[in-house]
Every structure is written in structure tokens, then in C-alpha cells.
Amino acid sequence: MPQGVPLTVPDDNLTTKQRRNRPLLMVNTGDGKGKSTAAFGMALRGWNQGFKVGVFQFVKSAKWRVGEQAVLERLGELHSQTGEGGPVEWHKMGSGWSWSRKAGTADDHAADAAAGWAEVKRRLAEQTHDFYVLDEFTYPISWGWVDVDDVVETFANRPGHQHVVVTGRRAHPKLVEAADLVTEMTKIKHPMDAGQKGQRGIEW
Amino acid sequence: MPQGVPLTVPDDNLTTKQRRNRPLLMVNTGDGKGKSTAAFGMALRGWNQGFKVGVFQFVKSAKWRVGEQAVLERLGELHSQTGEGGPVEWHKMGSGWSWSRKAGTADDHAADAAAGWAEVKRRLAEQTHDFYVLDEFTYPISWGWVDVDDVVETFANRPGHQHVVVTGRRAHPKLVEAADLVTEMTKIKHPMDAGQKGQRGIEW
Q1: pLDDT tens digit sequence for B61-89
Q2: CA–CA distance, A57 with A167 (Å, rounded to integer)
Q3: Which residues of chain A from 96 to 125 reach within 8 Å of chain B, CB to CB?
Q4: Long-range pairs for B11-17 at CB < 8 Å and ≥24 separation?
Q5: Which of A23, A43, B64, B138 could staple B168 via S-S, CB 3.0–4.6 A?
């Protein structure tokens, strides 16, 4: 089969061009590495196409992806300076979110996650970005902090042409069902199994 | 178990710091998406840490990763201009390789792949880069164009502190055995199954 030729043509009354340009909901899940890294790699491609990129990190942890953040924010700056690529916003759930005026109640992760999702919903409605990375967003769904039906319905009805990629382990079956592209990253072998720790340039 | 704590401490007479800084051989394999994208995402992190990044694309195809190439080369340029990050070289096996003076014998992919590997070997010996992406390098190994024992031995004996990531389907068992970190990307669901084609900002 020639590369890029679909296996079947769906009965959806869309032209190939319309299908080609359908905005995608993507999920990178599984216990292996590369879920977020691949999502940020896609954001890079989007930036290069002039997409407005929005990253939302939903888990407070040491895994802040400082390298990707630094580079993507630098690319966003480059866009402001030279017009190359697209603008980039990177938001993380630290003590509250950066757009929020209140300092955040240090320990109410559930409320912070819900506030993050409410903001993403607003932005989807307003078509603020072209490419959303909802990093580790599977967890607040798993933990019941964000309602999966609301998530799936919001994604299904998002206006315009907004791509969304969700990362994290154990993606909810309803999210998998709703997604266009789902990839599972599986660990075959990991250096931490052999006593190694994370290192500069590899883990961060 | 606290995050980042090894399961076992190997009996290798290395200190934790030595182990932590051991250069890694990584393989992203499997039939799913994200193998190369995750590798380029790692290259991004490496760039941010000032690593000298070298990308070598081993398969002649339409999948040229133009987005990642444009952005990584732009970052390399930024390094020349401002000193940020590290230098980036991106080589692809078109009609021969960019470093080669001869135009390349348009159809001898096997010879071109072998020439590419010979160059990577030279660079590993000379410690030209800190982070190598050998994109789709599993294929010339599978096809016997590059000797897997030579590859494994070269990686095992590479001097200094050079990270290598190899991408592609069906990684050779000897390569998997030799690697420190192996991740398999599995397709759970793909829009092409539903008749969609690749699109701007997503596939390239």
C-alpha cells in the first residue's frame, strides 16, 4: 500500500480536503517515556506552521519540563521579535495558575485542576490557540477532579480548527474513545531499573 | 517508592554520580507515532543544556520532518548568534549525504546508508556531538545494509559522554539488548484508519 493512503474512506460526506484538515484530538498514554516529549515535539511542528501554541501542565511535580518550556518560550519570543512561527503560552499549575490573580491555596490540587480545565474550556470556546498541549491531564480526570463527560463533550463541540493533545498514563476509556489518534508508550527497558538516576539534558 | 529512586543499585563499582552521568543509548521503536517526534523533543532539551546536537536521517522518504528540521536548525542559528543552547547539525540521506562531495548514486540506498553510518562512526570516535539522533536507523540495520554487530560494538565503545537515540520500527534484538532505554510506541488508534490523510502542523 502506498504511504499515506487511507485503508478505508469513511461515509461522512466530507471531502478529502475537509477530512485532511479536521482538527485532531490526540492522546499519548502508557507507562513508558516520550508521552510529553512527543507532544512538545508536535508543538514545535505547530509553531513552525505559525500555530498559536498553548501548553497547560496539570500536575504539580518536579517534572516541569524546564528544557521544553525554555525552548518553546524562546520560540514564542522569536515570534514576537521576527514574526517567525507562532506565539507560545506555557502555563503550569504551581500554586494556582499564572493567569489567576489569587495566590492559590497551596494544597488544593483538585480545585486548581478544575480551575485549569475551566480556563482551557474558555479558551477552546474563544479559539485562543491552534494547538493545545494538556500535559498530564489524564490524572485529574482519573482522580475525578475534572468530569470526563464534560471533557469529552467540550472536545467534541470545540469550534473552529483547534488541535488538542492530552498526555498521561491510564487515559480514561471515554477519552480514548473520543480521540482521533491514540498512542501508547510502553517501557521496554529503562536505565533506572539498572540503578541510574535522571540526568541533565535527558530527563530535564 | 519515592520518584526517581532506583529499584536496585548495580554492582558496577560506579558512584551514583558516575552512573547518573553515564551517556545513554536510547531506542524508540514500535509501530505507533511519536518515535522520531520524541527523539527530536529530547534533542530540544539537549540543545537547551548546550549539547552539540547531530541529527542523521537514514531513510529517503517524504517523511522529512521539515518542521523539526526548520526549528532545530533555527535554534542552531540562534546559538551562533547569541550563544544560547548548543550548535545543531542536521544531515539527511537525500542523493548522498550533505557532507559528501559526490552527488551520490541516486539509487544505491544501501551504499548511502553504509556511508552515513561510516560518518557517524567517525564522529563518535572524534566526539563531534553530545547528542545524536539516528532517525530511522533501525531500517538499514534490518535490511543488512549496516552490520548490527559493528553498530553495537561502536556504541559500546564510544568515548566520552555522547548520548545516542535511534528510532524506527522493528529494532534489532541486539540493539535492544545493548540499549539503556527502550520505548515502544504502539498505535491504539489512528485517524488514517478513519480515512484521514496527513495534515500541516500535525504530520509535518
Answers
A1: 656 788 899 999 999 999 999 999 999 99
A2: 10
A3: none
A4: B12/A195, B16/A197
A5: B138
Q: What is the pLDDT of residue A9?
A: 63
Strand ranges across the sheet with A131-135: A88-92, A53-57, A131-135, A163-167, A25-29, A181-189, B181-189, B25-29, B163-167, B131-135, B53-57, B88-92
Query: For residue B142, what is its C-alpha cell?
Result: 534490518
Extract the C-alpha cell encoding B88: 545543531
What type of residue sits at position B122? R
Does the model's ipTM exceed the 0.85 cut?
Answer: no
A22 SS3 class = coil
Q: Give A204 or A56, the one with higher predicted confidence.
A: A56
Question: What CA–CA distance (Å, rounded) separates B87 from B75?
Answer: 8
Q: What is the pLDDT of residues A167-184, one digit of tens each?
A: 999 999 999 999 999 999
Contact (CB, 8 A) for A70 and B44: no
What b/e sequence results for A112-132 when a residue is b if at least 16 CB atoms lie within 10 Å of its CB, and e otherwise?
A: bbebbbebbbebbeeeebbbb
Interface test mutation site (partner B, options A82, A90, A165, A196, max chain B beta carbons within 10 A):
A196
A-facing residues of B in 140-159 (CB < 8 A) are none
What Cα–Cα distance (Å) separates residue A19 from each residue in A40, A123, A153, B194? Answer: 24, 24, 20, 9
CA gap A75, B74 in Å, rounded? 9
